[in-house]
What we know:
Blueprint lengths: L2 H24 L1 H14 L3 H11 L5 H13 L3 H14 L4 H13 L3 H14 L4 H15 L6 H39 L6
Helix pairs in contact: 2-3, 3-4, 4-5, 4-6, 5-6, 6-7, 7-8
Amino acid sequence: MSTKTRRNIIIIIAVILVLLILELIFRPKVLRQSLAEPFYQAKKYSRAEDLFRKNSLKSDALANANLAKCLYRQNRFAEADSAASIALNSAKDKKDILYDRGNIAYQQKDYSKALKDYKEALLLNPEDDDLRANYELTLRKINKQPPPPVGLQQNKDDKEKEAIRNILEGLDNKESSDRQQLHSKQSLKTDKWW
């Protein structure tokens, strides 16, 4: 290898190192977030908590939401609730944080707060089945109602489907009669030639 090629390789490596150092200096939150996620996935919540806590100092919604999840996993529900509330104040997308805060409130046996958070989250994300299940579970907990038997739930679903079919059939019949009336009105008109 020639000295010119070696010099070019060294320059390229030096530029990459300088860019990496600049990245670490100007964007340390990104590095801490990247380091914390594997700790969280490996269930090393206290290590992940330290990194998320450093990021959460400036009211960063994502860092506070992640901190709340770490604290929740460590059964530190009061701290988790505080972090989730801070995250909620600065978050643009609130549905996941509301869901997490509802879970935290449920674990603290504050069912009315959990119900409120689940309801808000459901309004933002009505398709989430887990969220709906948690909402219904909390409702049953508040009302102290036992869960419905599985057979009755299926029967209820069948009744709902039948009701929907009946509504659709009624709408079809109404549309058909409207068309017939419109057609009969049009056929009654006679073209006057004068």
